[in-house]
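User:
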Amino acid sequence: MTYPVGAALLDAMVLAVVANEETYGYKITQELCDAVSVSESTLYPVLRRLQKNGMLSTYDKAFQGRNRRYYCITDEGVEALDIYRKDWYAYRDSIEKILINRGVNNG
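Assistant: Predicted structure:
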């Protein structure tokens, strides 16, 4: 079963990938596909939105006769990623309490 990925979670995942290394769109897509189903056509609007909101910056670098756009996380992006991670842990814990019955008296 595949669970839907909302915009906030996708933003958090993109920021996490870029926080690990400055990279380009196709590589970000490939890394995300290890965990969720996402296409490049879904990813590029996310990258533009994060850039517009000041969480990512870009630079172009020549690669095989073409320019490749690289994405870098900004200080605002690092702060947002920290908040996303805190929110994720709280969300995950609340879901696990139901799905796994952790901490619930079953007797």
